[in-house]
Specification:
The protein has about 300 residues and is α/β, with parallel strands linked by helices. The protein has 9 helices and 12 strands. Helices cover about 40% and strands about 20% of the residues.
């Protein structure tokens, strides 16, 4: 039995859809289905009940899932466990930082680095939430701040901040206003930065806006948050971002761009601190315990 067979099985078991699992694995559905059949033949057990429209786990498949996850987690832990065995007493660790981290969260990160400095040199590492979460999963990062939701059964997470979001609108269209209703924005397109840089929460937000009557969209590619601000500044669209003026995301604002609270909609972005669950019994026990103390009381803005 090869590790790849277990990875293929876990992907299908989590998605319960061969096409979705194949996309996740960056392969075609047909060879994936054949690999699952090979695994079933080797084990002498049917792992999935397949029909035209549904895929479900059999009793054997449900029993294999936690075993397969455990094997894969153990294999994935080999690099950091080996590194732990040979590293010097004071080691350098990295904590992931997504774009626009609130200053109060940054203060807590600095406090954590100070508290653990006798054992760890804690350095910050930038990236998108998806990349940072993968970095923690792979053992390259010790911890990360990440925009929630994050679904990874190998990781533990601690909610650390909730930030209220507001409407980013052209200032000349809403001059003198202190708030705005979502109903007033239905004729303006909703614009977002490229999917590869925005948190997964904004996919949910996009669907909410559509359900609430905001149907027009501008999809940007090949740019960053500054590109979104350019579109809004020209009066062509609106977006949604952090309402708190202390948020670094306000640094992307251009002339003719303001952020207003909604009167009939209350979106919010949650941030969590994440780490690999299995590392809390090894090299990261002291770091995670200290982080839990420092981030114990969630912040809000």
């Amino acid at each position: 039995m090869e590790m790849l067979h277990l990875r293929y099985f876990v992907a299908v078991a989590e998605e319960l859809n061969f096409s979705a699992a194949a996309r996740k694995l960056h392969m075609a559905a047909s060879p994936l289905s054949q690999r699952i059949k090979d695994l079933e033949h080797e084990l002498g057990q049917q792992l999935f009940d397949r029909s035209t429209h549904h895929v479900t786990l059999t009793d054997a498949g449900a029993a294999l899932l936690p075993l397969a996850r455990d094997v894969l987690e153990r294999i994935g832990a080999i690099p950091w466990k080996l590194e732990e065995a040979v590293r010097p007493q004071r080691s350098t660790l990295f904590l992931g930082m997504p774009a626009g981290v609130h200053p109060e969260l940054r203060e807590r990160v600095n406090a954590l680095a100070e508290r653990v400095r006798t054992r760890y040199e804690l350095k910050r590492w930038p990236g998108t939430t998806a990349d940072l979460v993968q970095g923690v999963h792979d053992g390259k990062l010790a911890l990360t701040l990440a925009r929630l939701p994050v679904a990874d059964p190998a990781l533990d997470q601690l909610p650390v901040m909730t930030e209220r979001l507001g409407a980013v609108v052209p200032a000349d269209l809403f001059a003198g206003r202190e708030s705005v209703s979502l109903a007033e924005l239905t004729e303006l397109p909703y614009v977002t930065s490229p999917d590869d840089i925005v948190p997964a929460y904004f996919e949910q937000l996009d669907r909410q806006l559509s359900d609430l009557g905001v149907k027009k969209r501008i999809r940007l590619t090949g740019t960053g948050y500054g590109g979104t601000s350019e579109i809004i500044s020209s009066g062509e669209a609106f977006s949604i971002s952090m309402l708190d003026a202390k948020s670094p995301m306000h640094g992307y604002r251009l002339d003719n761009v303001i952020v207003l609270p909604f009167t009939d909609f209350r979106p919010q972005l949650d941030t969590g601190l994440l780490w690999r669950r299995d590392r809390t019994d090894g090299d990261l026990r002291d770091l995670v315990d200290t982080a839990k103390e420092i981030f114990a009381e969630p912040l809000s803005s």
